[in-house]
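We modelled each protein-ligand pair independently. The example shown here corresponds to the 2-acetamido-2-deoxy-beta-D-glucopyranose entry; the chain sequence is given first, followed by the ligand as SMILES.
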Amino acid sequence: MQSTKNYNKQIITKKFRLIKKERAKMTKKISSTCLLLLFALAFANAELKFVFQLYRHGARGPINDWFNGAEQKDIYNELTATGERQHYNLGSKMREEYKGFLPNKYNHSEIYVRSTDVNRTLMSAASHLQGMFPENTGDFLPSNLTDYYTLPPFAGAKNYLPNQNTALPRNIQVVPIHAQPKNGDLVLQPDSNCQYYDDIRLAFYAQKKETIDFINQQFNNTYQQYSLLANKTFSNFDDMEDVDDTLQCNRYNAKWVPNISQELKENATYLTSLAWNFWYNQPELLRALNTPFLSQLMAYLDPVVQGKNINGLKWVMFSAHDTNVQLISAALNLTSIDCLLHKRFPNKFKPSKPYYNCEYAPEFASSLIFELQQAEVKIDDQINKGDFYIRLRRDGKYMNICERNSTNCSMKEFTQRVNWFVYDFNAVCNTPPSKPVLNTQIIAQSHNPLDHQTNFFEIGFYQQSIVIILGGFAFYRSNLHKKSLEFKQFQGCEV
Ligand SMILES: *[C@@H]1O[C@H](CO)[C@@H](O)[C@H](O)[C@H]1NC(C)=O
Ligand SMILES: *[C@@H]1O[C@H](CO)[C@@H](O)[C@H](O)[C@H]1NC(C)=O
Ligand SMILES: *[C@@H]1O[C@H](CO)[C@@H](O)[C@H](O)[C@H]1NC(C)=O
Ligand SMILES: *[C@@H]1O[C@H](CO)[C@@H](O)[C@H](O)[C@H]1NC(C)=O
Ligand SMILES: *[C@@H]1O[C@H](CO)[C@@H](O)[C@H](O)[C@H]1NC(C)=O
Ligand SMILES: *[C@@H]1O[C@H](CO)[C@@H](O)[C@H](O)[C@H]1NC(C)=O
């Protein structure tokens, strides 16, 4: 791919610069390697300035009782050995691909790691970092240090690594991983901090009832087969997703999975992806839930662009969940309900706009990488020499961004799009919808989506949600043009 090639050229440019500095030493012999680098330089067109990485934890145990989940309570929610290895491998891959940009050895000024305060994401980050900064990149004791000083003040303390000058066994490196309690972590756990999330989601389902009915009808066969597996009857994609999740855990953890056809598996993946999009894609909800994160992302990128990145921070890593990968993917048009529907049913769902990407739900250890680049030559109509621009990778593939058939987007345009997208988190998530709309007349008028045959969710909750959301929508609309969100609002969330 062209993109990967470009990146390699950038690495080579960096290497070349280092070499240039040391030219004095090197004048003796201009090696063939150097000639090769000189040749590559002729094609280099950008320099990588900053990387922001966010990933989902690796494989875990089940999180529900469906299928054989109930028999696996011992690993419920927890990262498994497979998950550790996945992240070790991903971290190692980062070290390999970003060689020359990522420091060879951990540097506290350049690397910042944050995780949700959840066992499996904390462990994923630790595993990832073992790959990124492996054995033999750790710290050494001062050569003339007296043994006495390696001892903690503890009765009977001793030195367990006598005559070894590495700080830790096999010269491993430990790296700080920051986390905030779930309650209040708007950047990484926005849905858990969104009081009205369920109401908004359910009202959105009601609004999309016709489409959902169509889906359920098309995939009735799939539901039936999964119902047999789960030994529990259901006919909606949310329950399907739960069963599929446990099967997926089992595959990754080498536990028994029934033999299912490729077609059935593909249908399950597809339905799971639809489910994820339906959960978060009510438009104001999607904007609100992404706002703390996007504000945080810009707070990292802006200083680099403005030349104010004084500490030399160059790599920020967030260890999080499928929710995060999904939310950001939907916010940046990497996926949507519409593109997924069009993909499977092109005749019924005609595109209202071109879909430049259409990703499925995030897998274990799925990742997003934002690269902030600076152009060394004119790249295209939007990006001139010296301009900063963004590239975005999902699971290693460069995505089309900013609604063009292009994997480059100028920082200026990216910022404009993000600024438009960000919204008032509290107005959507934590403000009780206004009361006046609460009357039976409106319930009656909005009755159409409340077909009582629906067995999608409990009806009582449903009706309540409709009323709340009607009130909510009036409220959102009145706020829509205010753009009341201050960018700084969420900066208190993070250093
Ligand atoms: C992870 O750690 C918590 C303590 O934070 C512990 O109580 C629990 O058993 C572990 N699992 C989960 C899912 O929190
Ligand atoms: C250890 O070596 C360093 C560098 O040679 C020197 O500056 C320092 O004083 C020495 N420390 C001790 C305790 O001898
Ligand atoms: C897969 O999905 C299609 C609808 O796109 C459906 O017609 C077919 O029966 C499904 N197959 C299975 C095995 O679930
Ligand atoms: C760590 O990174 C900072 C910022 O880039 C740099 O100034 C410093 O020299 C680095 N430290 C080491 C030990 O390489
Ligand atoms: C996503 O697509 C919509 C509709 O085409 C567009 O208005 C919006 O700016 C796009 N968002 C981004 C971040 O490109
Ligand atoms: C996008 O560009 C690629 C080449 O860069 C081309 O092959 C592809 O057909 C284009 N797709 C669209 C939708 O324009």
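DSSP finds 17 helices and eight strands in the chain.
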